[in-house]
Design a protein that fits this description.
Keywords: Carbohydrate metabolism, Glucose metabolism, NADP, Oxidoreductase. InterPro entries: G6P_DH, G6P_DH_C, G6P_DH_NAD-bd, NAD(P)-bd_dom_sf. This is Glucose-6-phosphate 1-dehydrogenase. It holds the Pfam family G6PD_C. With 494 residues, the protein is of the alpha/beta class. It folds into two domains: 135 residues, Rossmann fold (3-Layer(aba) Sandwich), CATH 3.40.50; 296 residues, Dihydrodipicolinate Reductase, domain 2 (2-Layer Sandwich), CATH 3.30.360.10. Helices cover 30% and strands 20% of the residues. The chain is built from twelve helices and 18 strands. α5 links the parallel β4 and β5. It binds the ligand O=C1O[C@H](COP(=O)(O)O)[C@@H](O)[C@H](O)[C@H]1O. The site of the ligand O=C1O[C@H](COP(=O)(O)O)[C@@H](O)[C@H](O)[C@H]1O has 4 residues, from loops.
């Protein structure tokens, strides 16, 4: 397929477009992708005169006035226009399509239920022969609202557009640290031989935030931390970290390999069925063979923890209790913190706990992928320290492009004098925001880092297991103070 000429954003009057899509597009155009720029069409049900001005303002804020003169940026600004249309009405959609030139991308910056209705309308436009054949669809997460609706959406889409022309966007796959991690893993020979249960003790994928609700009760109350962050973002990142090496970085291999990981993933289930706990190692099994201990995590770390912040101070900012925020119904018990332990039951990964954790209003938040290696098989009694050395850890920051490898080194002047050493580097500034990368892939027709339909469904399957654990009554909603490290029982702070 050729590069897109026109991008239509449905729901372009919304927060997502202003805050993320337009700045992302600006970075992409400033990087010269595509070289000639695009025709940008905003669409929504209201009449708007100011769309071109909104685009200009967003581009200027992201790039500075000078870069607005770059050819791709200039062309896009000159072309930006608004078409009023109800994206759920086939007649409106067909009329809109008559006014734009292809190759065409349709970006659904809409809530999931509206996206579903809009895709139904679009399938009718297709059936009447009025949808240009090479149209690309771009869908924002969440893809559906549960496993059934995700399946329904996928079946609907499959009826009128081939999978390779569907971009299911998860902007975490465009974060610099995630892309840096994938490159690091496959461009170096030293990692792959270690990338399995024999050498890796556990994996932690943590995205804590200082931000609280920030006035988003309308969205967040019905969502909560697990659905907002784990269902897609953290599970998709996990799948990239744990996938088998692709033979090519393309839209066939990577989505297939990540879906393969997700299919094998399920909530850690070593404790008594449904009791929300995990084996703390007291079962007597060794860490080898059939063992599935959560080595390195505090004993008895539960498989699922949920929490909700109370009043406190985060980063110098006073924050009210979640339950006192506007629009919050305390009885809904929406969680602002979720930590789950997942296992990927495959030949490569069986028995390796993967901790996925996210929380709002967290002081000193961690945002990283941490791979904790197993200790050497033998402890030298000549080493002066009393216990075993800490494990080697590879850490990659999500947003700060930092890579740290924590090792134990000998010396100085004595090979037995153990010193914790960190080999640390920062990747170069990417120039693109995460949405900039996402839009670049859309505009260049590269689907390697998008979510395939079955991958999205697997995310919902795992979320259903988390919801089941919540509903079992065995995972109490724990209070944690805003500005703290989250519920104490979660462990893993810092
Ligand atoms: O999708 C989401 O992600 C953000 C965190 O990602 P960032 O790149 O904006 O830092 C999270 O705050 C939000 O709740 C969630 O919906």
């Amino acid at each position: 397929m050729s590069e897109l000429r026109t991008l239509v954003i449905f729901g372009a009057g919304g927060d997502l477009t202003r805050r993320l899509l337009l700045p992302g597009l600006a970075t992409c155009l400033a990087a010269g992708v595509p070289e000639r720029g695009i025709t940008l069409v905003g669409s929504g049900t209201d009449e708007r005169e100011d769309f071109a001005a909104v685009v200009r303002e967003a581009f200027a804020a992201e790039l500075g006035e000078e870069q607005l003169a770059l050819p791709a940026v200039r062309h896009t600004l000159d072309s930006a226009r608004w078409i009023t249309a109800d994206a759920t009405d086939p007649e409106h959609l067909a009329a809109l399509l008559d006014q734009v030139d292809g190759p065409l991308g349709l970006y659904f910056a809409l809530p999931p239920s509206v996206t579903m209705t809009s895709c139904e309308a679009l399938s009718r436009v297709h059936d009447s022969g009025r949808l240009p054949q090479d149209t690309v669809l771009v869908l924002e997460k969440p893809f559906g609202t549960d496993l059934d609706s995700a399946r329904e959406l996928n079946a609907l889409l499959a009826g009128f557009v081939p999978e390779e022309r569907i971009f299911r966007v998860d902007h975490f796959l465009g974060l610099p640290g995630v892309l840096g991690f994938v490159g690091l893993r496959f461009a170096n020979r030293i990692l792959e031989p270690l990338w399995n249960r024999d050498h890796i003790e556990r994996i932690e994928i943590v995205f804590d935030e200082v931000l609280g609700l920030e006035g988003r009760a309308g969205f967040y109350e019905a969502t909560g931390a697990a659905r907002d962050m784990i269902q897609s973002h953290l599970l998709q990142v996990m799948a990239l970290v744990m996938m088998d090496p692709p033979t090519r970085f393309d839209g066939v291999e990577i989505p297939a390999n990540t879906a393969h990981v997700l299919r094998a993933a399920r909530l850690w289930s070593r404790g008594a069925a449904g009791d929300g706990s995990v084996d703390d190692g007291s079962s007597g099994k060794s860490a080898d063979g059939d063992a599935r201990s959560l080595a390195g995590l505090p004993d008895g770390t539960p498989a699922v923890v949920r929490g909700r912040y109370t009043a406190g101070t985060v980063d110098g900012r006073t924050m009210p209790s979640y339950v006192d925020e506007d629009g919050v119904d305390p009885a809904r018990e929406t969680e602002t913190f979720a930590q789950v332990v997942v296992e990927v039951d495959s030949w490569r990964w069986n028995g390796v706990p993967v901790v996925l954790r996210t929380g709002k209003a967290i002081g000193l938040p961690r945002q990283e992928i941490a791979v904790v290696f197993r200790r050497p098989p033998h402890d030298y009694e000549q080493f002066p320290s009393s216990g075993p050395q800490p494990p080697d850890v590879l850490r990659v920051g999500f947003e700060d492009e930092r890579i740290d490898l924590e090792l134990n080194a000998g010396g100085p002047f004595d090979s037995r004098g153990m010193t914790r050493t960190v080999l640390s580097t920062e990747l170069p500034e990417p120039g693109l925001t995460a949405y900039g990368s996402v839009l670049r892939w859309v505009l260049e027709d590269k689907t390697a880092f998008t979510v395939r339909g079955d991958g999205a469904e697997e995310g919902w399957r795992i979320l259903a297991q988390i919801a089941e654990a919540y509903a079992s009554g065995q995972v109490p909603l724990q209070d944690y103070e805003a500005g703290s490290a989250g519920p104490a029982s979660a462990g893993l702070a810092g």
